[in-house]
Amino acid sequence: MGPFHLPAIPDDISVIAFGDVHGCYDKLEILLEKIEERLAALPERRHIVVSVGDLVDRGPDSARVVERLTAGLPGCELVVLKGNHEAMMLEFIRGGEDAEAWLHNGGLRTLASYGIDLERTLAEGPTLHGLRRAFLDAIPEHHLAFLAKMPLSYACGDYFFVHAGVRPGRPPDRQNEEDLLWIRNEFLDWDGDFGKRIVHGHTPVDIATFKPNRINLDTGACFGGPLTAVLLEGTEATIF
């Protein structure tokens, strides 16, 4: 048997990935300022910054979080993945069958962050129709375009970045959208090889989980925990 292969990022690349923001703008801004300092100090490297999704809902400033990330991050490649909360928000905007589910999972706080007077809007007519109309009037077009173009996954070296996880037994590049956005126990309980080391969020933990086959970065920022990021360089994976 050959030597154990440590997951690695190509030598000339630095990747910083961060977990679920959920409207916690202040925590995001502190992290981005720290990232910008590192970019300025190491201009010779190729820097990639990855959000594993769930920018919105539950926290107080979802609109500001989206606006901040639509502006990009000078000096790096910014990859913002779709989370299940962005998927629910887009379903609400489209008026899909499960549109109301978003409102019961933090969506009302997102509506409020876009300046919607919930009490007045709810008093004016049917809940879904009135809220959807108010939201479409309030959300900027560039936010809609940004959210609609979010990729479901990103790969770099021996790492695969996604919101929730992957289904065991399928290569990372052959996963379905439902699993990438929503999977939990089947993924979390699996100790085998996924083909790449998975970096994900979605399931809150007290501190970031580092396992040979995956890294969980959701440390419950909207529940009072930190917004956690990991720095990946070569075979090293460390909290940033």
Automatic annotation (TrEMBL):
Q: Which GO terms describe its cellular component?
A: cytoplasm
GO terms of biological process kind: RNA decapping
MF GO annotations: bis(5'-nucleosyl)-tetraphosphatase (symmetrical) activity; phosphatase activity
Q: Looking at the record's lineage, which domain of life comes first? A: Bacteria
Question: Which Pfam families does UniProt cross-reference here?
Answer: Metallophos (PF00149)
User: What PROSITE patterns does this protein map onto?
Assistant: SER_THR_PHOSPHATASE
CDD domains assigned to the protein according to its UniProt record, in alphabetical order: MPP_PPP_family
> What InterPro entries does the database record attribute to this sequence?
Ap4A_hydrolase, Calcineurin-like_PHP, Metallo-depent_PP-like, Ser/Thr-sp_prot-phosphatase
State the protein's name: Serine/threonine protein phosphatase
